[in-house]
Amino acid sequence: MRLDLLPRARPSPWLDLLSPALAFLAAVLIGGVAVAALGVSPVQAFVTYFVAPLSELWSIQEVALKAAPLALIATGLAFCYRANLWNIGAEGQFVVGGLAGGCVAIATQGSQGFGSQGFTGWILPAMLAAGTLAGIAFAMIPALLRVKLGVSEILTSLMLVYVAQLLLDYMVRGPLRDPNGFNFPQSVSFDDAARLPALFEGESLHAGVPIALFGIGLGALVLARTLFGFEVRAVGASPRAAGFAGFSDARLTLGVFAISGGAAGLAGICEVAGRIGQLQPEISPGYGFTAIIVAFLGRLSPPGILLAALVIALTTIGGEGAQIDLKLPLDLTRAFQGLLLGLVLGADVLTRYHVRLVPGGPAAKAAS
Fold it and tell me: Pfam families from the xrefs (predicted)?
């Protein structure tokens, strides 16, 4: 016996819309069984994971601060994945973006700015531009290797993550280390002119969140309303037909990698100039890899990606609370996120295809 997937003649739009919610409900039920097996009340765990992070202002801000870089990176990655290209190295592009923008902040440390009034307003835009351009440049390496030499972008983009992490580690332990930092591997703290301003006085929410929202909106506009967005969608739907239409595979590869690398680099410098305020050996908790999950949870659509990023950020903050309050392992949160991704992808398959059992398979062929 084997399983065959047959396309549905008319997939239900309502079922397609509801399938992510049903997948989330199934993940919660399965997670509740796992929590009960660990001796914790599923109701108490549900409240800690999904209700408590939304009950206080500081935790809501933390959810937004974690969701913003995830959604921005995932929106960039959606361009690659829609075009059947696989950028797995967003983590490295995030790190390089933070490093490049941080170098601008360090180089201007203590600067009095331009003119008699000491204008320093150019520093932060220069940092954001440097981070974005560095992410683009780093993403061009696997893109050019694919275009010119046919090298798999999956391997090259992934391996470059380690190059970026080791480069950052070397820089903060060597050339960029704070000489007055008691030999700790970190740079000097950035000046106020090199920090993203807080949106509200005394709160942790900073300007990186609206920057991310702008990037997500711009990504949605490009995908839906431009010729390049149509080209991305066309190649993803039918590469052969797109080739007959005259779309350039090389140009598309360079374009989508530039967008995804730029988005990751921008997210990196926003993280460094926002929450961290200096360069250190670790500037990412794995945003570049988690964003891959977010992209597919959001069905490679910017609005869906934003919602998926909020869900992942919510479960991350809730998982940290569950680890403290309920003594649940943090790995349970990662397992839940992976389970959620699997269920959403499975639900998408079932809404678009019929599953049919067909007699036969290797054993039957051997017998005949």
Answer: BPD_transp_2
Q: Which tokens in the block code for residue 245?
A: 């239409």
Tokens of 256: 């989508």
Half-sphere CA count of 175, side-chain side, radius 13 A? 9
pLDDT truncated to tens, each residue of the chain (368 aa)?
A: 677 777 777 777 787 788 888 889 999 999 999 999 999 999 999 999 999 999 999 999 999 999 999 999 999 999 999 999 999 999 999 999 999 999 999 999 887 665 545 667 899 999 999 999 999 999 999 999 999 999 999 999 999 999 999 999 999 999 999 998 888 999 999 999 999 999 998 888 999 999 999 999 999 999 999 999 988 988 877 776 666 666 778 899 999 999 999 999 999 999 999 999 999 999 999 999 999 999 999 999 999 999 999 999 999 999 999 999 999 998 898 899 889 989 988 888 888 887 777 776 555 555 55
Residues in the chain: 368
SS (H, E, C) the chain: CEEEEEECCCCCHHHHHHHHHHHHHHHHHHHHHHHHHCCCCHHHHHHHHHHHHHCCHHHHHHHHHHHHHHHHHHHHHHHHHHCCCCCCCHHHHHHHHHHHHHHHHHHCCCCCCECCCCECCCHHHHHHHHHHHHHHHHHHHHHHHHHHHCCCHHHHHHHHHHHHHHHHHHHHHCCCCCCCCCCCCCCCCCCHHHCCCECCCCCCCECHHHHHHHHHHHHHHHHHHCHHHHHHHHHHHCHHHHHHCCCCHHHHHHHHHHHHHHHHHHHHHHHHHHHHCCCCCCCCCCHHHHHHHHHHHCCCCHHHHHHHHHHHHHHHHHHHHHHHHCCCCCHHHHHHHHHHHHHHHHHHHHHHEEEEEECCCHHHHHHC
